[in-house]
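Work Package 3 committed the consortium to producing structural models of liganded targets before the mid-term review. Because experimental data for this complex are still outstanding, the team generated a predictive model from sequence and the ligand definition alone, so that downstream docking and mutagenesis planning could proceed in parallel. The input record is reproduced below exactly as it was submitted to the modelling pipeline, together with the SMILES string for magnesium ion.
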Amino acid sequence: MSFLPQHEVPQRTKESSSSLNETNSSQSSSKSMLETSSNWGSSRSDHFPTLNFGSLIGCCLRRKQKDSEMISSLPETFSVNSSSSQLHGSLQRNTQHESSVIIFTLSEIMKATSNFSPSFKIGQGGFGTVYKGQLKDGTIVAVKRAKKNPHDSQLSTEFRNEVTTLSNIEHLNLVKLIGYVEERSERIMVVEYVANGNLREHLDGHYGIVLDLAMRLDIAIDIAHALTYLHLYADKSIIHRDIKSSNILLTENFRAKVADFGFSRLGPSDFDASHVSTQVKGTAGYLDPEYLKTSKLTQKSDVYSYGVLLIEIFTGRRPIEQKRDSKERITTSWALQMFANGKAFEVLDPRIERTSSASLLIEKVLELAFQCASPQRHERPTMKKTTEFLWKVRKDFQNSRQRRNSESRELCKLFSEKA
Ligand SMILES: Nc1ncnc2c1ncn2[C@@H]1O[C@H](COP(=O)(O)OP(=O)(O)OP(=O)(O)O)[C@@H](O)[C@H]1O
Ligand SMILES: [Mg+2]
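The resulting structure, written out as tokens with the ligand in place, is given here.
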């Protein structure tokens, strides 16, 4: 089953494919930017985009050997510096073995949401309906009420176990699960309320604010922190399974919080049209092709979705843009073609200011995103490596902006002295 249309390999890539293979075999520096065991030239999936990401990227990486050197020189492990303490500093793992989950009664939650009043409704998704609510102690929460599953008259043990696992997770960039309702066949989750809407709404400009490049990069890093934590540092490694822009919620300070980790296991089996209705769950456009093919889910499935999301964050486009011309319909493929043709800057969201720092940043971010969204699982970096790479990108971006600012200050000074 394929959600993505088949693509043709761009002409330019076909022409250069033999030299790409040479590159792959002989140049370890351009082979991989994040030390994945790359086999770009030969990687092709029968089921998933036939667009050869490997060849295209190989071609581009050859052009950008300098960048690759920078990338491959990244540390293998976290070092104790400001960036890593940023990750570790925000890790607040609940070391208690007892779960801190609260079991609410249905009537408590009905009170909190004024009987699930439509005026308290803040969203609707595959899991069910989301309400804003206020608990007895005044805490504002989001209440997620799952659609009723006719085949499941009792709350399953699996559901309860999952909720308990998830409630033990605490991280600055993850929406905290506060509790659940254990009554009749209701599946209700009570989670931390995040006040500033979801990332997709912001990319769509619903709030009249254009997220600038620095904000987008910070958001991307926040999400990477959250996923690294889920994969590596939670008591039990957790795969999110449904990374997408509507599951990224923003605080008033534009910090990102990832919602719904593990939720796709908790929801009803009959997900709506935006979800895949086979045993494979997730959202079209973000789904790991290898997961689709094999039904085997790994942490690299989240990495794939993250790659797609990275492209979405910086282009502003949805992963699938139904209304566009066929060449532009699959945003990842379109961005990859543009990148291969040396037009990386053109994929940047048109609302973002064009500067030399922006140009550098988008090239590096796209390179990373394509590697994350490689059709071949083994070619994708881990979330930890992805995070480390983004720290470096942010540092370079900040330095480049500072340089630009001091240069323009110097120029202003010169002009005012001459005047
Ligand atoms: N914790 C929360 N705080 C504030 N708003 C939330 C919260 N959780 C969800 N929402 C809002 O409700 C909307 C619907 O959420 P929901 O998770 O049900 O659907 P979705 O993310 O669009 O799809 P999916 O069900 O696949 O996750 C979100 O897009 C968001 O705007
Ligand atoms: Mg959601």
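Reviewers should note the following from the model. DSSP finds 16 helices and eight strands in the chain. These observations will guide the Year 2 experiments.
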